[in-house]
């Protein structure tokens, strides 16, 4: 009876399809998070008002390696007074997207502090981080290798997966690559966690 129950449960799960990935999108205010979210969801530029609470959208990918996978993306307000709330959204998340304004040299250090604090918190230990180096359309935009250094991503532990993706949320350039890379990192992390669990048993 046990095995028939297990068979029924697994076929039910197969019918339900792959579970959506839960993604939290963070970054300083005005980095372009909401513009990124709406561009991904509606495939067009939408002018966003500053986010006071959060926005949440479910997006199903229709091409590439992640075809058929749904992402539930939480876009959380980035103003200083709202940042303490970030940790309630990152609980049990599959991946973190951190959006930076690639021309905002003045606030890059502030972005670095927030990113490193979030990535290093015990609850997010090992959660893959996809940095979107946004606003690449603007003159003076820093390239991914500069952003990688300025955000001290190399200071994260060696098994922490991260990637910097250049993008422009206005045109959508770089955003499908960003989701694809995020998907790859999440899958890789899941596989590593499974094999670590097996070894421990
Ligand atoms: P946030 O959600 O991170 O706070 P928003 O940021 O999405 O509200 O965007 C803040 C401003 O940046 C918006 O301009 C938006 O149009 C602009 N923006 C977002 N992405 C890009 C981009 O890739 N290139 C350029 N040039 N601008 C971008 P406004 O003028 O409405 O404040
Ligand atoms: Mg916003």
From TrEMBL:
Magnesium as UniProt keyword: yes
Family recorded in the similarity comment: Belongs to the small GTPase superfamily. Arf family.
Protein name: ADP-ribosylation factor-like protein 11
Chain positions recorded as GTP binding sites: 27-34, 78, 134-137
Residues at which Mg(2+) binds: 34, 51
GO molecular function: GTP binding; GTPase activity; metal ion binding
The keyword Metal-binding appears for this protein: yes
Organism: Lingula anatina
Keywords: GTP-binding, Lipoprotein, Magnesium, Metal-binding, Myristate, Nucleotide-binding
SUPFAM superfamilies: P-loop containing nucleoside triphosphate hydrolases
Function: May play a role in apoptosis. May act as a tumor suppressor.
